[in-house]
Design goal:
By secondary structure, the chain is an alpha/beta fold. It folds into 2 domains: 3-61 and 325-386, Urease, subunit C, domain 1 (Roll), CATH 2.30.40; 63-286, Metal-dependent hydrolases (TIM Barrel), CATH 3.20.20.140. Helices cover 28% and strands 22% of the residues. The chain contains 11 helices and 21 strands. It has helices at 84-89, 111-127, 148-156, 173-185, 207-213, 230-239, 253-266, 288-299, 304-310, 313-319, 348-353; strands spanning 3-7, 11-13, 21-22, 26-30, 33-38, 50-53, 58-61, 63-68, 75-76, 81-82, 93-98, 134-136, 161-165, 189-192, 217-218, 244-248, 272-275, 334-338, 359-365, 368-371, 385-386. The chain is globular, with a radius of gyration of 20 Å. Bound molecules: zinc ion. Zinc ion binds at residues 164, 193, 198, 219-220, 224.
């Protein structure tokens, strides 16, 4: 039995918007799953196999990037970049969801070819986790000619997510809706490329098409990069009662703030989730999720402990993942962080609410330490330490 004890935690962020800060200074994980948390004096900390002394820093569920475009391993041909996933782990991200492996050179667009690539991509990231990061990949981009049996076959083979609707040849709401309904019937989630074209060859998707298509996630509601006009973003927030409002780093920041302000006024902040949309034309964003948490807290008038939920718990709930929340039985995936050195604010949360990044001191995936002091964030005031 593997027993991880994390003690001297300064604050536990739960990932749950309805109760974002848990009492306690200690957390125990057994065989990679969260077992108990609270005050050390009340918990069974005997016979650990690993011990982390948090030295007073904050523990939160590992961050989730709801929108990435991986290709293979820890390499992206989009910007000829190596180790972008490892770099993102250093930004506190422990889980990523593919919105399509669209940067694969020579990506097949015929139906049998796209199915083959999706299944292969799902397998190669399931079999190989770069630096331990969980990458849910194998997200096919729908093309004309797909029939219901194709979605059944993909689902049976382990495909769980569609790539962004609109990046393939299907550009009309009626056809897209038929295909995402087939996908949904077999348990495959869907997302859509909202806003103007991202690169030559992609097209505009406006609010009417988003609503007609009815995907589970409104992919980059703040554009990737070009956002829809304000009235259309507000219309999507008002109309959509369940779908995730996905805000990405690789989008329009003003539209991101508009989305959060609108969602807050409508009482729909639980629908807000975060992604980077990297790798992309704007590169890779190892600190993208942390940067959006700080930006949206600062400009969206959202307490930092709620903004953190956009980057873990909300995404986990919208995407039906077994991570992202402090809950017994869920994966022991964490980021440990503290206020950055010389950042203003009395606490880490106050400094984030003023738009500053925290310093990441450690990441843990399935109860195993995967990185220590971040090479990418500003240095933290205090660092957790492995003592066993
Ligand atoms: Zn897109």
């Amino acid at each position: 039995m593997e027993k991880l004890v994390i003690k001297n935690i300064g604050m536990i962020l739960s990932g749950k918007m309805e109760d974002p800060i848990f009492d306690g200074d200690c957390l125990i994980a057994i065989d990679g799953k969260i077992d108990a948390w609270g005050y050390e004096k009340d918990l069974d900390t005997d016979d650990p196999t690993s011990v982390v002394d948090a030295h007073g820093v904050t523990l939160a569920p590992g961050l989730i990037d709801s929108h990435v475009h991986p290709v293979v391993g820890d390499y992206t041909p989009r910007q000829q970049q190596l180790h972008w996933i490892d770099s993102t782990l250093n930004g506190g991200v422990t889980t990523m969801i593919s919105a399509g492996e669209v940067h694969m050179p020579g990506r097949p667009k015929d139906v049998i070819g796209l199915k083959a690539m999706s299944i292969a991509a799902q397998r190669w990231y399931e079999n190989f986790r770069p630096s331990g990061v969980k990458v849910h990949a194998g997200a096919p981009v729908i093309e004309h000619g797909m029939v219901e049996e194709d979605f059944a076959e993909l689902a049976n083979a382990g495909v769980k997510y569609l790539g962004e609707v609109g990046l393939g040849s299907v550009k009309d709401g009626k056809t897209a809706n038929q295909m995402i309904e087939w996908a949904r019937k077999y348990g495959i989630q869907s997302t859509i490329h909202t806003g103007g074209p991202s690169i030559p060859g992609s097209g505009l998707i406006d609010a009417d098409m988003v609503i007609e298509t009815g995907t589970d996630v409104i992919g980059h509601i703040n554009g990737g990069h070009s956002a829809l006009p304000d009235d259309q973003i507000i219309c999507l927030c008002e109309t959509c009662t369940k779908q995730a409002f996905e805000i990405v780093h690789n989008g329009n920041e003003r539209a991101a703030v508009l989305t959060v302000n609108t969602a807050r006024e409508l009482g729909k902040l639980d629908q807000v989730i975060l992604g980077t949309d990297g790798p992309a034309g704007s590169g890779v964003q190892p600190l993208g999720i942390l940067r959006m948490i700080a930006m949206l807290s600062a400009f969206g008038n959202v307490p930092a402990e709620i903004a953190f939920c956009f980057g873990n718990g909300n995404t986990a709930r919208q995407r039906d993942l077994n991570v992202g929340l402090i809950e017994k039985g869920l994966c022991a995936d964490f980021v440990l962080m503290d206020q950055a050195q010389h950042a203003p604010g009395k606490t880490m949360l106050e400094s984030v609410a003023q738009g500053n990044l925290p310093g990441v001191g450690m990441t843990i995936i399935d109860g195993v330490i995967r990185s220590e002091r971040s090479r990418n964030t500003p240095p933290a005031q205090r660092l957790p330490e492995r003592i066993l």
